[in-house]
Specification:
The complex is a heterodimer. Helices cover 22% and strands 31% of the residues of chain A. Chain A is of the alpha+beta class. Chain A has 3 domains: 133 residues, 2-Layer Sandwich (Gyrase A, domain 2), CATH 3.30.1360; 99 residues, Aminomethyltransferase beta-barrel domains (Alpha-Beta Plaits); 74 residues, Elongation Factor Tu (Ef-tu), domain 3. In chain A, strand 6 and strand 7 form a beta hairpin. The longest helix of chain A has 12 residues. Chain A is globular and about 65 Å long. The radius of gyration of chain B is 13 Å and the shape is globular. The longest helix of chain B is centred in the first third of the chain and has 7 residues. Chain B has one domain: RNA polymerase II/Efflux pump adaptor protein, barrel-sandwich hybrid domain (OB fold (Dihydrolipoamide Acetyltransferase, E2P)). The two termini of chain B are 21 Å apart. Chains A and B meet through helix 2 and helix 7 of A and strand 4 and strand 6 of B.
Chain lengths: 389, 117
């Protein structure tokens, strides 16, 4: 029940806000963060699906990669900074339009995944030659070092993880933002720009990891508390902890690094083919291309699936069995889906057991339970592809 | 007189077992309960039931030795009863005690309150 985190845990800028709101602070990726507030995970989850949930994701790794010597030609500078990161990932960064965000993967030479991340091209020409990069909390030190090393002598990686990174997610998120930073609701899904707010600038993207429409906002530490308070002053907004963040992303069928993605899992196995850009496939110029292109050609041992589970939740590590009882795979994320009022899971099985409708079983506490392979997302995404103001 | 374990189970004078208000608060929203079987014989400390919150599964241990005489089937449809009324509608199972003397080894309300202070 201690309000003070253990010595070895880092705190986020808004730590005092979370404690004051009754957040139950737990260790997560080296930070002390609220797993839930007094409302509880299910209420917080449902609030986000129906209204607007405010998440503090400042433990993540926002950063800016900036070209050391800009030519002043926006297109040429963008191409130059894209060339710095593209050898590490499988996405087409060169082809990003101003303001566009791309979900991509940092890969190892065996085609496994160091991390999944967002890379974005600034909307403003004045920021040509820079990229906005957001990586996961648990991997950020290694990711930043990897990117900075690759950029040595050409570009510099500036970390922004001393700032607050907030996510506002849910069907009422746009209306809330419209009242505070009206210009930001013009952003389409997976686009970002910077906006004036009071005497600072907010970096706002239309993105998130809940399956809902929403925004992610980077705010400097001096203005973080005021911006947090401004959002929470709107009665459509409630603070949401990490517990509901996990159940929301699970329902949305989105993989979580360290669970559904790791150094051994390739983007093809994880069902992330959309993140392997066409240009990069044709050039075969990304780490692990040999394996990944073979997998795209059909040589695949396991694939990520969604499962509905009868009875008790099947948690990470639970064995997946075929309908005759042979062990064929493993659950990598699993739990209770508040929107569906049932247990769901993500796991890996051989491709011949992956078709939606395939009858499977899971092993929970030594007992088998019926399960079925299903298409994901479990709960439909409600992203706003184009600005709808 | 109701008695308490260090694992936050309670057992009433008539042998009704559940988890304490403190325990349900710590676990958060309960989404699934695995009940013991009527007639099942349990030793003190045996795993008797499992309650699952959104985040994790927690074992419920039998506070004393005995035979299960009833289980709360209402929890199968409404596991959240453990959150809303852990000491009444959210009871988990009832025991016919082998030896009422085992209750002496458990905490009384004052000692339990001290533990969870």
């Amino acid at each position: 029940m201690a309000d003070q985190p253990a010595d070895d845990l880092k705190t986020v800028v808004l730590n005092d806000k979370h404690v004051a709101l009754g957040g139950r602070m737990v260790p997560f990726s080296g930070y002390s963060l609220p797993v839930q507030y007094p409302a509880g995970i299910i209420a917080e989850h449902k609030w986000t699906r129906e209204h607007a949930g405010l998440f503090d994701v400042s433990h993540m790794g926002p950063s800016f990669l900036v070209l050391d010597d800009k030519s002043g030609d926006g297109e040429a500078d963008h191409a130059a900074v894209a060339e710095v990161v593209e050898p590490l990932i499988c996405g087409d960064i060169k082809g990003l339009k101003p303001g566009q965000i791309r979900y991509t993967l940092l890969l190892n030479d065996q085609g496994g995944t160091h991390d999944d991340l967002m890379i974005a091209r600034p909307a403003s020409e004045g920021w040509g030659g820079a990229l906005y990069i957001v990586v996961n909390a648990g991997t950020k030190e290694a990711d930043f070092q990897r990117i900075a090393t690759a950029a040595l002598g050409r570009a510099t990686l500036n970390r922004s993880d001393h700032c607050a990174l907030l996510a506002l997610q849910g069907p009422e998120a746009a209306a809330v933002i419209d009242a505070i930073v009206p210009a930001a609701v013009e952003l389409g899904f997976m686009h970002y720009a910077s906006f004036d707010w009071r005497d600072t600038k907010l970096v706002i993207s239309r993105s998130g990891y809940t399956g809902e429409d929403g925004f992610e906002i980077l705010v400097d530490p001096e203005h973080a508390a005021a911006f947090w308070d401004t959002l929470l002053a709107d009665n459509r907004v409630k603070p949401i902890g990490l517990g509901a963040r996990d159940s929301l992303r699970l329902e949305a069928g989105l993989p979580l690094y360290g669970h559904d993605l790791d150094e051994t899992i390739s983007p093809v196995e994880a069902g992330l083919n959309f993140a392997i850009s066409k240009r990069r496939r044709e050039a075969a110029d990304f780490p692990g291309a040999q394996r990944i292109l073979a997998e795209l050609g059909g040589v695949l041992e396991r694939v990520r699936i969604g499962l509905t589970v009868e009875g008790a939740p099947a948690r990470e590590g639970a064995a997946i069995l075929d309908q005759y009882g042979a062990e064929i795979g493993v659950v990598t994320s699993g739990g209770f889906a508040p929107t569906l009022s049932r247990a769901i899971a993500i796991g890996f099985v051989p491709p011949d057991h992956a078709a939606p409708g395939t009858r499977l079983q899971v092993l929970v506490r030594g007992k088998t339970q019926a399960a079925e392979a299903v298409a994901t997302p479990f709960v439909p995404h409600r992203y706003v592809r184009k600005a709808s103001k | 007189m109701t008695k308490f374990t260090k694992d936050h189970e309670y057992i009433t004078a008539d042998g009704t077992v559940g988890i304490t208000p403190y325990a349900q608060e710590q676990l958060g929203d309960i989404v699934y309960v695995e009940l013991p079987k009527v007639g099942q014989k349990l030793k003190a400390g045996d795993e008797a039931a499992v309650v699952e919150s959104v985040k994790a599964a927690s074992e419920i241990y039998s506070p004393v030795s005995g035979t299960v005489t009833a289980v709360n089937d209402a929890l199968s449809g409404e596991p959240g009863l453990i959150n809303t009324s852990p000491e009444t509608d959210g009871w988990i199972f009832k025991l016919d005690l082998d030896d009422a003397g085992e209750l002496d080894g458990l905490m009384d309300a004052a000692a339990y309150a001290e533990l969870t202070k």
